[in-house]
């Protein structure tokens, strides 16, 4: 079986944006223009292809990243013909597109999608410009080194301004963004775009703007077009010495040469082309698709993926080639009502066939790969084999989790895992009936496997089940999914803040655990020193005697075997378990460095359990004396409201222990940026609506943890009792 599309004609890219910037509408247009659907669904009608979950259609938001495979013929879009005068189809390109959510509570979907994509189209609202989630998504893309194109959408909206939106990209995201287009007309007058590279105007006619008409630039835009084209050329030639020389010599540079230089610079993340239009009014989307082909990388353009050989610990590379050993990363699990669990994976090298065995190097287990499917959102197309650079889903794999590596057993590799943030909001949940109780455990486990930011725990004292997530909406959707997809009815408590504890000082403690009963006794003796964990200096190597995790460090400083090596893991485990219980109010402790400095053992009575108990007791004794404090999540808040409500809005933020950082303007409205403790923000959206006669809106995302003031700490401790 041969691959049907060469690697250079494959593009894996995502559509990312702040909520309501028009991502899903843009995705629908992509599907329509690539011929995957024959009727465009609209978000406001609840009929879109990529928003296929019931909750998405009811709320008009995207919750889960949808993966779509489609095909685009770039020459066809811009009217270029083959030698026979018909559209030339020899350049068709396979797109694997992921439409991601914009709401901050589902940010996990963006983060994991960017990990496996080669490029992204970042969509902006032409009225609002850069919004908070645009910044977060841009930061995630920076972390994953993903090349980007920008699309300033909604040029047909009242108050739309290409220049203001473009300025906000330069100011808040990256100064290397470059105009590639200008809009023709704004608001109700918007009907086309000027392409600054070709110096032509493009209009979109016919059913849903399917026909692209090329004309001369309107007279009123010619001067602007010349000025901005000169700017564009100047910025592009900076990245190519040959073109720079031609430019300085005053020579005209051919379009093909310019495109080649732009592609190289975009892939190196040195420039970010900016396009414009209106997805809803079918203006400009085809030209963005051409740009995806022209400038975003194919799997061959990205560096080889790095991993670790689990047997030797050495770094290994895998190139995007069918002839290399198979390697793939599972980046998403999804429960499908018809076929069970789908495991989405990106193939980095090699190929794999349905019906063969899949080796999971993260767990060391093998499973039979029954079926492989490609997805058109919630429709499935079965395929026999997938190759390097492709994205597909495996049906019925039971033991895989997000971030697991699949590979060739003879050539093992473990790829870098995707890091997720910890949840900040929790609530109690209990089944309504005995029948619901049995189903609830299974439903929660499946939802937890799907979403790494959704955590399930139980309170050992009360026996209650606690679910935790990224925000109130996140948990509300999860409870709703449990009811609809798994038929589980549950009673839900009020949202609670996920506090943490840490220490600010240093302390040492010693504990001997000795238990004599008839026969063999128990003996464990440790001396521990606790201090706040220091951030790792960039490039620093972690010493062999240190185990370092995201929020905990264990240092084994035992000399001369005073505690035998086989008992050291038990000491670390005892400390870890004590950290989960906390000292001040029973919340999990973080950012603690624990050093095991001394101890002793007994030839007969020493055991793992004895060291675990001794370590746990010593940890608690030391932590109580190391200035323990409670930490609370602080949220980054952006409030948009009309000027006349300024006093009420700023007053409400101050009353919530908030710090106002800056005030800006967006069109006629004011935008307030602040940092506020999460505990003060439950129900804030409703308050804001009544305060601003329904005209205010707020978005909030987790920023950092901070020590709780003493008076608030007392209230938290009291409530925990």
Q: How would you describe this protein?
A:
It contains 17 helices and 39 strands. By secondary structure, the protein is of the alpha+beta class. β8 and β9 form a beta hairpin. α11 packs across α12 and α13 crosses α14. It is globular. The protein starts with 9 loop residues before the first strand and ends with a helix.
Outline the secondary-structure elements.
Blueprint: E1 10-17, H1 23-33, H2 54-59, E2 66-72, H3 74-77, E3 93-99, H4 107-116, E4 119-125, H5 132-143, E5 148-153, H6 162-172, E6 177-179, E7 181-184, E8 192-195, E9 200-205, E10 211-215, H7 222-237, H8 241-248, H9 255-267, E11 272-276, H10 285-295, E12 305-308, E13 315-318, E14 327-336, E15 340-349, E16 351-353, E17 357-360, E18 365-368, E19 371-376, E20 379-383, E21 385-387, E22 391-395, E23 405-407, E24 414-415, E25 425-431, H11 434-450, E26 455-458, E27 465-469, H12 472-486, E28 490-492, E29 496-497, E30 500-503, E31 507-515, E32 522-532, E33 546-548, E34 552-556, H13 568-581, E35 592-600, H14 608-625, E36 628-642, H15 646-655, E37 659-666, E38 669-677, H16 684-691, E39 697-707, H17 710-720
Parallel strand pairs: 1-3, 1-4, 4-5, 5-11, 6-11, 34-35
Antiparallel strand pairs: 2-3, 7-8, 8-9, 9-10, 12-13, 12-24, 14-15, 14-23, 15-22, 16-21, 17-18, 17-23, 19-20, 19-22, 25-27, 25-28, 25-29, 26-27, 30-36, 31-32, 32-35, 33-34, 36-38, 36-39, 37-38
């Amino acid at each position: 079986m041969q691959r049907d599309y060469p690697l250079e004609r494959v593009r894996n890219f995502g559509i990312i944006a702040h909520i309501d910037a028009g991502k899903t509408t843009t995705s629908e247009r992509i599907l329509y223009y690539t011929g995957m659907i024959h009727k465009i669904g609209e978000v406001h009608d609840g009929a879109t292809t990529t928003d296929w979950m019931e909750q998405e259609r009811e709320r008009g938001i995207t919750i889960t990243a949808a993966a779509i495979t489609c095909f685009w013929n770039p020459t066809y879009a811009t009217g270029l013909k083959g030698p026979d005068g018909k559209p030339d189809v020899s350049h068709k390109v396979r797109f694997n597109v992921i439409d991601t959510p914009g709401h901050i509570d589902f940010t996990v979907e963006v983060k994991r999608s960017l990990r496996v994509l080669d490029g992204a189209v970042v969509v902006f609202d032409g009225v609002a410009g850069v919004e908070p989630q645009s910044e977060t998504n841009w930061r995630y893309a920076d972390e994953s080194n993903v090349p980007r194109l920008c699309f300033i959408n909604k040029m047909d909206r009242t108050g739309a301004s290409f220049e203001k939106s473009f300025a906000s990209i330069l100011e808040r995201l990256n100064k290397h963004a470059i105009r590639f287009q200008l809009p023709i007309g704004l608001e109700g007058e918007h009907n086309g775009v000027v392409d600054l590279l070709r110096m032509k105007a493009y209009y979109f006619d016919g059913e849903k703007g399917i026909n692209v008409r090329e004309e001369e630039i309107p007279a009123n835009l010619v001067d602007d077009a010349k000025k901005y084209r000169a700017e564009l050329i100047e910025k592009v030639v900076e990245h190519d010495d040959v073109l720079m020389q031609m430019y300085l010599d005053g020579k005209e540079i051919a379009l093909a040469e310019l495109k080649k230089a732009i592609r190289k610079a975009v892939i190196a993340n040195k420039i970010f082309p900016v396009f414009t239009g209106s997805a809803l009014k079918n203006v400009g989307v085809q030209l963005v698709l051409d740009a995806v082909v022209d400038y975003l990388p194919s799997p061959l353009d990205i560096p080889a993926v790095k991993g670790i050989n689990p047997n030797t610990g050495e770094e290994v590379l895998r190139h995007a080639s069918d002839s290399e050993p198979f390697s793939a990363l599972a980046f998403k699990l999804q429960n499908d009502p018809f076929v069970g669990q789908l495991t989405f994976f990106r193939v980095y090298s090699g190929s794999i066939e349905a019906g063969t065995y899949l080796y999971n190097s993260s767990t060391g287990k093998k499973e039979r790969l029954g079926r492989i499917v490609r997805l058109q959102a919630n429709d499935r197309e079965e395929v026999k084999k997938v190759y390097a650079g492709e994205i597909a889903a495996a049906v019925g794999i039971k033991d895989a989790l997000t971030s697991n590596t699949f590979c060739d057993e003879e050539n093992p590799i473990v790829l870098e895992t995707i890091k997720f943030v910890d949840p900040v909001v929790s609530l109690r949940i209990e089944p309504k009936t005995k029948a619901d109780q049995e189903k609830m455990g299974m439903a929660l486990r499946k939802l937890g496997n799907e979403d790494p930011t959704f955590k399930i725990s139980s309170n050992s004292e009360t026996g209650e089940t606690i679910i935790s997530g990224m925000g109130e909406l996140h948990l509300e959707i999860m409870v709703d999914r449990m009811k609809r997809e798994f038929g589980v009815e549950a009673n839900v408590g009020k949202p609670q803040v996920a506090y943490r504890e840490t220490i600010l000082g240093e302390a040492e403690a010693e504990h001997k655990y000795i238990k004599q009963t008839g026969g063999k006794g128990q003996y464990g003796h440790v001396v521990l020193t606790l201090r706040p964990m220091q951030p790792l200096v960039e490039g620093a190597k972690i010493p062999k005697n240190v185990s370092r995790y995201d929020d905990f460090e264990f240092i084994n400083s035992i000399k001369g075997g005073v505690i035998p090596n086989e008992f050291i893991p038990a000491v670390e485990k005892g400390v870890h378990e004590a950290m989960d219980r906390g000292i001040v109010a029973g919340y999990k402790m973080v950012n603690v460095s624990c050093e095991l400095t001394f101890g002793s053992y007994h030839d007969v009575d020493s055991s793992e359990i004895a060291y675990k108990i001794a370590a746990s007791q010593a940890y608690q004794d030391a932590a109580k004396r190391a200035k323990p404090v409670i930490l609370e999540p602080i949220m980054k808040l952006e409030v948009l409201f009309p000027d006349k409500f300024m006093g009420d809005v700023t007053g409400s933020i101050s009353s919530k222990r908030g710090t106002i950082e800056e005030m800006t303007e967006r069109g006629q409205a004011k935008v307030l940026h602040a940092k506020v403790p999460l505990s003060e923000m439950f129900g804030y959206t409703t308050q804001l609506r009544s305060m601003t006669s329904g005209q205010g809106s707020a978005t909030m995302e987790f920023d950092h943890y901070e020590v709780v003031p003493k008076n608030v700490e007392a209230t938290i401790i009291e409530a925990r009792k």
